[in-house]
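User: Can you write out an input/output pair for a complex, sequences first and structure second?

Assistant: Here is one pair. Inputs:
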Amino acid sequence: MNNSADSSSEAEVSSEFPYLEDESVVAVQRGPEPGGLGGAYRAFGETLRGLKTTFARIVEGPVTIQYPEEKTPVYPRFRGRHKLHRFEDTGLEKCVGCSLCAAACPADCIRVVAAENDPEDRVSAGERYAEIYEINLARCIFCGYCEVACPFDAITMGHEYEIADYNRDDLIFTKEMLLAEPLERTPLRREGE
Amino acid sequence: MSAEERRRLIEAMRPEDAEPVPQLHQVDVPDELRERIEAAMAKYPQVRSAALPALWAVQRHYGWCTPEGMREAAAVMGVTPAYLESLATFYDLFRTSPVARHQVLVCHNISCWLRGADDLIGALCEAAGIDAHEADHGGANSPDGEVFVKGFECMGACDLAPMASIDERYYGPLDTDDARAAVEQLRAGSEVLPGKALAERPAAGGPEPDPDPRVKEVESGDA
Amino acid sequence: MPDPPRITLLVDGVEVEAPHGAMLVDAAKHGDVEIPVFCYEPKLGHPVGACRMCVVEIEGIPKLQTACSTPVRDGMVVYTQTERVKEAQSAVVEFLLVNHPLDCPVCDKGGECPLQDVAMGWGPGRSRSVDPKRHFQKPIPLSPLIKIDRERCILCYRCVRFSQEVAEDEQLQLLERGSSTFVGTFDNRPYIAPFHGNIIELCPVGALTSDAYRFRARPWDIEDAGTVCTLCPSQCNIKLTVRDERIERVLARDNVDVDDGWLCDKGRFGYQMAESGQRITEPLIRAGGELRPAGWAEALEAAAAGLREAGERTAAIVGGSSSNEDGYLAQRIVRKALGSPHVESRPSGGPGVESRRTGGRGPAGFLRQGLVELSAPRLAASVSDLDRAESILVLGTDPLHSMPILDLRIRKAVRLRGARLAVATDRPSVLDGGAEETARYAPGFVGGFVSALAAELGAAGYERARGELGADAERIAGALKPGSTVIVWAGPDARGLVGCARALRLEEDGAGLIEVPEGANGRGLREVGCLPVAGPGLSDVEQGLDASGIRDALEAGSLEAALLVNADPIRDFAGGPAWGEALGKAKLVLAVSMFEDASTRQADVVFPAESYAEKEGTVTHPDGRLQRLRPGTPHPGGVRPMWEVLAELGALLGEETGVESAPDALAAIASEVPFYAGISHEEIGGTGIRWQERAAARYWPRVDDVGARDEVPGREVEPAGRTAPEPGDTGGRAEDVDGVIRVGTYRDLWAAEVTDRSPALRFLAPRQALELAPRDAARLGLGSGHEVEVRSNGTSVRARVSIHERVKPGSGFLIEGLGDRAASLRGELVEISKAGEPE
Amino acid sequence: MPETRMLYRRVDEPGLASIETYRRRGGYRSLTRTVKEIEPEELLTTLQDSGLRGRGGAGFSMGKKASFLPRGDTDKFLCCNADESEPGAFKDRELMQKNPHQLIEGVAIAAIAAGAGWAFIFIRGEYAEVADILEGAVAEAYGAGFLGADILGSGQRVELVVHRGAGAYICGEETALLDSLEGKRGNPRLKPPFPAIQGLYGGPTLINNVETLSNVPHIVANGADWFKGFGTEQSPGTKVVSVSGCVQRPGNYEIELGIPSRELIYGLAGGPPEGREVKAWFPGGSSAPVLTAAELDLPYSFEALADAGSMLGSGSIIVADDQVSIPALALRTARFYHHESCGKCTPCREGTNWTVKMLERVLSREATPMDLDIIASVQDNIIGHCLCVLGDSMAMPVSSMVKKFRPEFEEYIRRVASDSPGLGSDGAAGLHALTGTSSLAPASGPHA
C-alpha cells in the first residue's frame, strides 16, 4: 500500500468524526415539542397502526388451517418425502443403483444394494439396477443432497410431509414404496402466497 | 449378450479350455509346416524371432492364419497360441479370416490416391463382384472365392502409382482396363498383366547417364 | 543388502531426498508431490512409458520426460506444475476420455478408479470430442471369474504385462493394432490361470471386474479389514472388503517380504467358503446316530467326558489352517491334561510313510535332529532372499501347487535378475521352462537324488552316484555354483539336504533354505509343539505316533479318542478313506470343523470352527515370519474363538491355562517356545516379524542337545530297514517292466475344500487324473481321457489319463486330496488297466 | 542437372543382382580388403571421417553411431532397416531389387566395423519379390565365402539373416524393428536405453538404413576424402530421392544434396502434368510438413528444409497439384498414421483416431469452424508427447496443412450452411472434391 493513499483516507475519517480519538461524545437527538397533534400522534400513533392490522385480520376471516382435514400448502421447492422415477417411455427405473445418493447422504439413511440387469428383462436402463433401495425416513434430515448427487435424476424430493407412523420400522421406505405414484395430498403455495 | 447366454457361456468354460502352450502330441502338425518352422527357429539366436516366419509358414500352408495352424505353430515353437494370434492381428499381411485364392492389395495411400487409386479399387471390385467400400476398409473376398481385394497402405512403390500387389508381386501403373484384365487373368489362371510387373521396369532416370568422372573410379575392377 | 545411497533432487523448487536410482514418480513422493500414472506399476517390472500421463519437465532436457521411467540423479531439477506439463497431462486425459464411455455410475470401479481420480486432478474438465466412441460388446466373461468391458479399457497394458511378465502364462494378449487394439485371448478362449485374478486389481479402470464382486458394494459402503490368508503356506497378506458384516471381496495387502502384492485365485476367491451357508454354526453332539445341535456347555462337557475316559489313549490331529494358538492349546490339552504324546500336524507324517514298499519309518530321533538342523535360523532364507540369490534350487515340490506365490517370486528372480534356476522334482514343474537345469527322479527317490547332489556339491561323507542319477545331480550342482543359493524344498525325506546346505554354505547372507510345509501353518504348528517327536519350541518330549501310526493305532483300538482340530484326515491325509475306518472304531471323535465333511461324519462331538476371516491369533510363515490373523467379520451364529473353546476344554480336563484372550494365548506360547520369547501382537504388527531376526532366536535348540550322532550325515540319516536306492540306480527302471509304472502324487492347487465350498471356484475342482509320459501311454495303449484303474497291493484308484510330454518315462502321477486313496499309492509300482474310453 | 549415380551406377544392367556380374563390376573388393587389410578401428575411423549421414530419416552420422557400440566380447548385432514404409519412399526397394550385393557387402563391412557377429536385414513383408532376390543374393554370398562363420578364411564371422516383416509401418522405427525382430508386436521401446547400448536381445545393436549401408563399400574402396567430394559439407555423398505423386516421371533420382528443389520436381521428374501447377509438396515423405509452390526454390538439403519448417527425412518428395483438395489430402495422411499407429502410447493412438474422425467430419461437411481449432490444438497436443515419432509424423503435416491452407478447410465448413449434398458422407469423398467431381468418377486430366 502506498503512503499517500493512506494519509488521504485518514483525513476523510477525521473530518467526519472530529472527536473520534480524543473525547467521548454523546449525541442527543431532539424531537418536536410535546403537545398538540404531534403529541397525540406520538402517544397513539403506533397503537393505531397496530390496530389497523388487527382490524384488517378480523375482516379477513380465520387463518387457522383445519389440519388434517386441510393441508398446509408448501412452496414448490419444499423438500418432502423422496420419490424414485421411471422413464416415461420405457417404464424402466431411472435408478441404476450407483449409490452416489448413499455416499452423499449426511444422515446415512440410504441403503442401496445393486445387481446386474438381465438384458432380456431389464429393470433399469444400464447394466446395473438397484435391487434394494431403502431410505430410512426416521433418520433423513431432508437436506436434498441425494437429489443433487443423482446423476440420472432418478430420485427427487417430493412435497409430501405426512410421514409420521407408529412404528420406526415402517419408516424405512423400500424401492417399491418410493417408486409408487404418491397421492398428491400436499397443496402447493401459489405465486406470491 | 443376454444374462442367460452369458451364464451358459460361463458354465461352458472349463479349465481345460484355457490355451496354455500346447504340447506337440496334442496337435497334428503337417510335416512340411513343422520343417519350415523348425528351420526358421534354427536361423535365429533366439527362438521367438521365428514367430513371424512361423506365421508366414502357417499362412502359406493354410492360405490364412487359421486358429488350428496357429496352435500347431505354437506347439512347435513352445509359445502360447495367444502370443501368435496377437502377432497375427498386429501385422497387416497376416489374414485371420478365410481368404480367397488370389490376393490383390491395392495401395490407397497418398501417391497412388493422387494418381487414381480409388478408381482402380472401384474397377477391380466391379470386375470381381466385390463391394468397393468393404474392400477399401479391411478387404473382401469375391463371391466365387477367387479374388480377395483390399485397400492397403503404402507399399513402397509410388513410382508405379497407382499400383497393386497381386499374389505378392507388384504391378503398376494400372488403369481401370488393367484392373478388369487382371481379374480375368487371375480367374483364368493365366499370366497376370504382362508388361506391368515391377521386375520389368527400368530406373526412372532413363538410360544410364554418362558416369560422373568421380564415380568412374569405383567401377574399374573385375572379379 | 545395503540400502542404495540417497541423493537430493529439486522437485518444484523443493528439495527432496530419495534413494539413488529410484524412478522419478516414486522419488517425488518423498517430497509429497504426486505425479499421475496409469501404466506404471513397479510390480510389473520395467516401466513401459506408454500412457504418457506422467510427463514432467526436467531441466536440461528439451522434451518432456516420463517420470515413470526416469531414474533420479543427484541435483536433478524437476518441474511437475509448469504450464507445459499441465497441458501435456490434460491432453493425455482428454485423449483417454475420447473413447472412454464415462459410465461411472454403473461401473464397479466408480469411487476407487484411478482414471476418475486423475481426470479430476489433472484433466481438462470437459471434453471437446463429439465423435462417436469406440464400441465393443459390453461385459463379456473373460473367464468364469472375470468380466471384461473393452469399452472402458484405456490400454495401459497392465493386465497383459501381468500375464506375460509376472505369471508368464501368456494367455492374455493384445489383439489388433492402434486404436482398434483390445485385450483378449486366443480364439476367444477363456483366460484361466492360477493367478489371473490379479488383473482385476491391476486394472486402473473398470474394464476388468470380478464376477463375484460385481455390483456388490461401493467403496463408501465398505470397510477394509487386513489379515492373512491361511489357505496355503504362502500366508499372503490380504485385505477383506466387508459390507454389512459380509466379506464381499479379497484384495492384496502389499507385503514385499511375503507376497510382493500378488494373490493366487484361491486366496482371492476362496473367501466365499467363509460366507457359505453350509457352515456349521453351533456345536453338534451325536445322539442316536445323528448329529444334533447342542449348547456349548453341553458339547464341551460331552467332549471333556469322552476325553477324560480315553485319557492317554487320545491322539490329536491339528490341521494346517489352525493358528499357533489353536495348535498350542490342543497339544497342551493332549500332552498335559491327558498325558498322551500323540500329537500330529503333518498329513504325510514322518519320513518313510511315502511308500509301504520302499521302507518303513525312520527313527524319531533323526526327525527331531533333522528338523533342528534344517530349520535352524542360520540356514533360514527369507522370501526376499529369493530376490537376491544368484541361484535357486527347487527341490521336490512344485511351488505353483504347494505355495503358489513363491512360483511368481522365483519367476521374477529369473526374469528380472537372471538368477540361475535349477528344478529337481519327480513331477514336471511349471517352472521347468525358465530353469537352467532340470532333473527328474522317479517318484519316491528324492532321498537318493539329494544324497547324490550333496556328493556332487562336494559334501563330505556322500558318495557320487553313477549313471543317470549322477549325471542329473552333476548338472544341477553345476547350475548352483558359484554364488549364493536359496533352496526351496518340500517332502518328508530330507536326507542329504544337510550335506547340500553345508557344501553350498547356505548359512551365508542371501542364501538358505525355505521349506514348504504341507499345511498352511505347518511351520508354526511344528514350533508350538504339534509334532509327535517334539514339544513346544521343539523341546524333547516323550515320543508319540505319527499320522499313519495314529491311524493304525485307532484301527487296532490301542487309541480310543481322536481330537481333530481343523483337520479332515480322510480327505487330506495319506491313507485317505482308511482314516474313515480308523475313526469309525474310535470311541470318541471330537472334530473342530467349519463344514460337515467325511471326518465329521465319524465324529461324536463337533465344534464349529472359525474361518480365517473371523480368527484372532498368529501364524508362522515358512520363512519364520510370525503374522497376525485379525478378525474382519463377526463369528456367525454360535461360533466362538477356538482359543477360548480349547482353553475351556482344558479347564474342564483340569489343565488351567489362564488364557483369557488371544494375546494371553500368544503369551503362553512365547513362554514355552524359547525362540518366540517375549513376542507380542504389537511387535508382530501389520507386516509380521521373522523370529530369526529377533534376539530370542539364539534360544533355538542346539543340534548336540538333540543327540546328534557321530556318524557322517549321509549315513546317520539312513532310515532303518529301508532299501535306499543304490548309487547309480535312477529308480526309474520301472518302464522296463511291462505295464507297470511307479506312481507319485501331488497335491493339486485346487484339490482343496475351499474349491468345493466357494461357488466361484467350483469349476476348478480337479478330477482324478493319471499323468503319463507319451511313451508309457503308447506302450499301455492309452490315450488322453481314457478311464483307467490304478492298482497296487489291493488299493485302487480310478483316474483319467492325461498325457504330458515332460513326465519321465516310467513315472505316473495322481492327485492327492480328492478323498480317494491316491495318496496311499505314493511311491508304489502300480498296475494300470483300462476302465473306459474317453468321453 | 543430371543425376550423380553412385549407388545406382549401371542399375539396369542385366544380371547385376547376381554375384558374378556384381563382382565383375568390382564388387566385394571392399569386403575382401576389410577382412584382409583393415583393422576394425581404422574402418570405424574411415566411416566416421566420411561424414556419411543416415539415409533413413534422422540423418545421424553413421560412423558415430557405430562408434557408440561398446567394445568387448558381448554379443553385438547389426540390423539393416529395410522396412521402407513411409508413403513416398521407395528408394531402398529399387536398390535391393537391382543391386542386392552392394547392400550385402555394406552390411558385412559395417558388421565387422561394429564387431557384430549377427546381422539382420529387416525387409518389409510387402517386398516379397525383393526379399526373394535378396535371399538369393545372400545365399550366393554365403556360397562365395563372403558371409558365414569364417569370411574368406579370415576368422571374421558375420551371419546374415533376411527377416521378412509382415506389414506394419511402425517397424521402420528402430526400436519397434527390434521388437518385431525378437518376435514380438512391433511396439517402439522406451529410450534410453538406446539400441547401441541395449538393443536386439538386450545386446548392443547398430541399426542402419539400406541406402546408408549401400554407401559403405564405396567409402571403403575409395576413402573418406573421396566420399566428401560429393554433396555438401554437412552431408557428403549422393542421395537417392524418390519423387512421386503429381509428376510426369515418378521414380528414384540419385543426386547430390543442395540442388534446388524445383530442379528435382520439374527437371528430373518432369513436374506436374501439362497445365497444372504444384500446389503443395511433401519434401521428405508424408511425415514432413507440407511446403507450398512458393517454396519450390529451396535448396534440397537437410538444413534448408529444416529452416523452412519442414524436413528432408528419407528424401521422398510427393507432389500435389492444383486440382487436389488439401483437406482430402490431410485425411489421407491422417488415415495412414491412424491405421499404422501401434497403439502403445495414448497421444498417438487416440490422437490419430480423433484427428481422422474430425477430418472426416470436415469432408462430410458436418464440422464447425471450432473443429479446425480443435484439429490444430490436437496436433499440438500430440507433437512431442508420444513415445516415438509416429504421432508427430501425422501431427506435423496435418498441422501444416491446416495452417497453410486454412481457407480451403473453411470453405468446406462454410458450405455446411448452404449445404450442398451429393458428396456423400464417406470421408474418402473427394480427391477433387472442390472441383466438384466425385472421387470414384474418373478425374479429368493426366491423373486418371
